[in-house]
């Protein structure tokens, strides 16, 4: 049974096929809203529809296939159940294929109320800083509004005298959450229900950038005054070995998003910022790039060559570095000459001066540098870099 009387407009079709390419998908928030809408219709009509048209947060409409629709009758009152299988499109999403499930029941004489609950597989918030109530479900504000808007759109007259309780659950969500940073952020027992537009765009950087900002917010909310930005998993493990006294919440994988990371740290008044990096990203920071991804700008070979010259590399090697394609070439050739530490210290000092110039604030800055295997090379503190200038 299809949802009757939906508003006209552009409708996108959802399916569970996954192909390589640029195919967009739907967020956990959009799928939850669709499941809640379908279950609400089932509660009202006695039959859950086989597909449902859902309003997305961005104003578009999307059509979703509904699985396992049923209405259960009991002495406590009827409950309607609906499942939407998440299609993440071509994005490598840990929640692709998740069964976003909604159970809707009546709240007699609670006019207009739409109570939103988290069931099995939806994480529980245990730390402040996420913009969500501690102890409540990890359903972000935009999905919360979107779920309620879709329920309200079909509930109609019922809400004049009664309310509805909507429970969102995700079978297997606890295992899916192990592939995310939820535990680091204090979200335990399942995944988060996310999405600001309803649409997942393949390999989108927006969600990663947002996660960096959120991680800094969580650390600040826990009273931490020190933050450690790393460029990936290997540099994070390295930094954790160097700074064992810090709580895990202090470590944030900023990836390529230097600007977002530093602006967040300054905004949250972090007293000490650490950066863990290898030669390539270190050079990009020295170039002053806000985003250090390869597509954003090529490595500055002149900067590498000048740093090599500054630590005593012979002229022919400096020329080779200036012509090489990668920072790794310089690092490996200088290692042979016993100049590993001096070269990386020079790069770290340049990166520190660049970061300081672009992101001023009353914080102390330390750069930790490792090799490609995650082994310690050098630590540069702020005073040292300023003296070297």
Index terms:
single chain, 389 residues, alpha/beta, CbiD-like, 2 domains, five-stranded mixed β-sheet, elongated, disordered N terminus
What does this protein structure show overall?
This protein is an alpha/beta fold and 389 residues long. The chain folds into 2 domains: 11-200, CbiD-like; 206-388, no CATH class. 36% of the residues lie in helices and 22% in strands. The chain has 13 helices and 19 strands. The chain has helices spanning 28-45, 141-155, 173-177, 182-185, 206-221, 233-242, 258-267, 279-286, 301-310, 315-323, 327-336, 340-358, 382-388, and strands spanning 11-13, 25-26, 51-55, 61-65, 67-72, 79-85, 99-107, 114-118, 121-122, 124-125, 163-169, 187-188, 190-191, 199-200, 226-230, 251-253, 272-277, 364-370, 376-381. It has a 5-stranded mixed β-sheet with strand order 5-6-7-11-8, covered by helices on one side. α12 (340-358) crosses α13. It is elongated. Mean pLDDT is 90; it is low at 1-20.
Mean pLDDT: 90
Largest β sheet strand count, sense and barrel closure: 5 strands, mixed
N-to-C span = 72 Å
Radius of gyration: 26 Å
Number of helices: 13
Low-confidence stretches: 1-20
Quick structural gist:
By secondary structure, the protein is of the alpha/beta class. The protein has helices at 28-45, 141-155, 173-177, 182-185, 206-221, 233-242, 258-267, 279-286, 301-310, 315-323, 327-336, 340-358, 382-388; strands at residues 11-13, 25-26, 51-55, 61-65, 67-72, 79-85, 99-107, 114-118, 121-122, 124-125, 163-169, 187-188, 190-191, 199-200, 226-230, 251-253, 272-277, 364-370, 376-381. It folds into two domains: 11-200, CbiD-like (2-Layer Sandwich); 206-388, no CATH class.
């Amino acid at each position: 049974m299809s949802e009757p009387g939906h508003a006209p407009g552009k409708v996108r079709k959802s399916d569970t096929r996954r192909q390589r390419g640029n195919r967009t998908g739907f967020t956990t928030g959009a799928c939850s809203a669709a499941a809640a809408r379908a279950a609400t219709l089932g509660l009202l009509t006695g039959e859950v529809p086989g597909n449902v048209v859902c309003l997305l947060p961005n104003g578009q409409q999307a059509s979703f296939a509904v699985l396992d629709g049923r209405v259960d009758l009991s002495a406590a009152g009827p409950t309607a159940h609906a499942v939407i299988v998440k299609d993440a499109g071509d994005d490598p999403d840990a929640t692709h294929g998740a069964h976003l499930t909604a159970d809707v029941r009546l709240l007699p004489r609670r006019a207009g109320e739409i109570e939103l609950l988290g069931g099995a597989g939806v994480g529980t918030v245990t730390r402040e800083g996420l913009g969500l109530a501690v102890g409540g479900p990890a359903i972000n504000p935009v999905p919360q509004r979107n779920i309620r808007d879709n329920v309200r759109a079909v509930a109609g007259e019922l809400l004049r005298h009664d309310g509805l309780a909507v429970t969102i659950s995700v079978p297997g969500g606890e295992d899916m959450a192990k592939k995310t940073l939820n535990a680091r952020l204090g979200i335990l027992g399942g995944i988060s229900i996310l999405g600001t537009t309803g649409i997942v765009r393949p390999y989108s950087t927006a969600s990663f950038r947002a996660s960096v900002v959120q991680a800094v917010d969580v650390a600040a909310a826990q009273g931490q005054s020190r933050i450690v930005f790393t460029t990936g998993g290997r540099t994070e493990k390295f930094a954790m070995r160097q700074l064992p006294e810090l709580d895990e919440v202090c470590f944030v994988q900023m990836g390529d998003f230097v600007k977002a990371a530093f602006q967040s740290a300054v905004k949250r008044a972090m007293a000490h910022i650490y950066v863990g990096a290898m030669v390539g990203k270190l050079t990009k920071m020295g170039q002053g790039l806000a985003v250090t991804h390869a597509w954003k700008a090529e490595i500055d070979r002149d900067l590498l060559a000048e740093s090599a010259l500054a630590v005593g590399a012979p002229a022919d090697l400096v020329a080779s570095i200036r012509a090489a394609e990668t920072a790794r070439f310089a690092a490996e050739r200088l290692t042979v000459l016993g100049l590993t530490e001096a070269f990386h210290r020079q790069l770290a000092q340049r990166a520190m001066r660049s970061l300081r110039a672009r992101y001023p604030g009353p914080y102390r800055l330390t750069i930790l540098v490792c090799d490609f295997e995650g082994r310690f090379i050098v630590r540069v503190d702020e005073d040292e870099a300023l003296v070297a200038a």
